């Protein structure tokens, strides 16, 4: 979200500090009565609008397809997602308590988490990528070579920015800089909604943190289940670089 907002503001960092990232890029389906309404926020915005959604492909409003919107889908390997989600569940108070890591991992594997099965989600968007203007972006590629990925995004968006602007976007969208930025790190959220003392919104931003959480038995069970659920798909992830 921050990278795209920086791109559409031509790298103007001050413009991107006019409000928090969730106001600049509304989370469409986030509706908390009297507090936040993503749909209403989007209605107030001028085109071109940046929209954030976590919806599985089959639940996306049909207007997105009819209007031939450009969509960027960010996917990350399942094991790191499970770990990240576990910490997010603990601090984001709109979610039920996750239980132990073992219990949460089981919920993740069976799709009993917000937005459903990770496996169905990533495969669903992957299968649509050639039919519509969908750019399928891998978190692991972004970590490995962020500049190259930003340049590919610019091409997809038909944007042409000078190299010094790209370097500026690269710097200001880096994990360490965003972690310190109150407009991106969610520290402005009320503790009743997100308790950052439990876990920061921007926690580690690394690849392979799953190795610090999975036991050997959990890993083996997960891999066996993963193989079964991803069978037949051409989609493949890297869980380390």
From TrEMBL:
Q: EC number(s) in its UniProt entry?
A: 2.8.2.-
Single biological process term from Gene Ontology: sulfation
- Report the source organism: Suricata suricatta (Meerkat)
* Alphabetical list of SUPFAM superfamilies matching this protein: P-loop containing nucleoside triphosphate hydrolases
Its subcellular locations are: Cytoplasm
Which protein is depicted?
A: Sulfotransferase
Gene behind the chain? LOC115301877
Name of a matching Pfam family:
Sulfotransfer_1
GO-annotated molecular function: aryl sulfotransferase activity
Annotated Sulfotransferase domain ranges read 2-233
């Amino acid at each position: 979200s921050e990278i795209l907002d920086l791109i559409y503001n031509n790298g103007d960092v001050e413009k991107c500090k006019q409000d928090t990232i969730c106001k600049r890029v509304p989370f469409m389906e986030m509706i908390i009565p009297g507090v936040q309404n993503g749909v209403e926020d989007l209605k107030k915005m001028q085109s071109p609008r940046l929209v954030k959604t976590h919806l599985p492909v089959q639940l996306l409003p049909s207007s997105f397809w009819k209007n031939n919107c450009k969509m960027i889908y960010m996917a990350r390997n399942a094991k790191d997602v499970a770990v990240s989600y576990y910490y997010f569940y603990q601090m984001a108070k709109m979610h039920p308590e996750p239980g132990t890591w073992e219990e949460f991992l089981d919920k993740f594997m069976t799709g009993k988490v917000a937005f459903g099965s990770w496996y169905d989600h990533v495969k669903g968007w992957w299968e649509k990528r050639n039919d519509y203007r969908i750019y399928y972006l891998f978190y692991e590629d972004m970590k490995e070579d962020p500049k190259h990925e930003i340049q590919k995004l610019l091409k997809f968006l038909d944007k042409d920015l000078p190299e010094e602007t790209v370097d500026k976007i690269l710097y200001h969208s880096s994990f360490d800089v965003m972690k310190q930025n109150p407009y991106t790190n969610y520290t402005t959220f009320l503790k009743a909604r997100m308790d950052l003392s439990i876990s920061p919104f921007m926690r580690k931003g690394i690849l392979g943190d799953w190795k610090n959480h999975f036991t050997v038995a959990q890993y083996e069970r997960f891999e066996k289940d993963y193989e079964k659920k991803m069978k037949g798909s051409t989609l493949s992830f890297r869980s380390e670089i």
